[in-house]
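Reopening this one. Same input as before:
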Amino acid sequence: MIGYVCLGTNDLPKASAFYDALFSVIGAKRVWDLERFVGWGQSESSPLLLLIKPINDAPATVGNGTMVALAARSRAEVDAVYHQAMALGATDEGPLGDRGENFYVGYFRDPEGHKLAVYFAG
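Same output, byte for byte:
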């Protein structure tokens, strides 16, 4: 199972502010805050999302075909996260809605272009 996912950033303070505000909707918090990276989760031992300045000092770029999916506890939480992302400057990559049976999801890109999904299955 997934332990953590890393997304590259060229502006750690700005990207961190986006994710601080986004994750406040679902109760995730910063569990790591270091010079090169910041990590969010429910605890240090839960799955984490990390933002990192690339170790090789080359510019961070968006992965083609890469997406991070955030699990929500309800359709209402999917809506709240998606709308928070839009309010924080994300761009729509697929509106909120049902995709198949018992799968409710919205897709967006963060301000640096990383694609995320927020979904509820059930």
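So the earlier flakiness isn't reproducible anymore. For the record, The chain has one domain: 4-55+66-121.
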